Amino acid sequence: MANKVQKGRFTARLEGDFVVFIIGMRFNKLWKVHKWWGPFVAMPKMLRELQSHPDKGLLGARTVVSGRTVNVVQYWRSVEHLAAFAKSTDDVHLPAWRAFNNKVGASGDVGIYHETYRVAANNFECVYANMPVTGLAAAGEHVAIGRRSDAARERMGAAVEA
Predict the structure, then answer these.
(1) Of 31, 51, 74, 127, which has the maximum CB count within 10 A?
(2) Residues of the chain with pLDDT under 50
(3) CA distance 118 to 8
(4) pTM (2 decimals)?
(5) Full residue range of the structural domain in which residue 23 is found
(6) Shared-domain flag, residues 85 and 131
C-alpha cells in the first residue's frame, strides 16, 4: 500500500509544531568499508527502534541515496523528543555515535552531517500529485486538495478541506 500511487492532488496535514531533521553520511573513501560499515548499518537500527516506540517522537522518515551520500529525512514531534533520543543511554544512537567517533573520528574516511529545522504550526506547504503517500503526508495525514486549497499560498497556514 505504501507504494500505491494516489491519483489526484494531495497535501499534508500535521497538527502543531514539528521538526524536520536531515541526517546524512558520505562515503569519502569507498574502499574503507571497515570504517563506514558500522555507521551505515546503525541508522536502520535506529529507525526500527524509533518506529517500534512512537512515544519517542519520530513521526516518519525517508531515506534517499545520492551518489556517495545517504540522507535520511526525519519528521519529529519536537526538538525535545529528538534531543532526548540523541542523549539517551537506553537507545541505540549514543553507542553508535561513540563508536563512530572512536573508529572514524577526524580521519576523513566517512563524513556525517545533520540539519535541524523547527517548523511552527501551519508554516509549511506541500503538494503531492499522482504520488504514493510520502514525505510529510506519510508522517502526518495525507489529504486531498480541495477548492479552497488549490494554490500554495492558500495551503500555507490554511485549513485543508477533504
Answers:
(1) 74
(2) 1, 159-162
(3) 29
(4) 0.86
(5) 18-118
(6) no
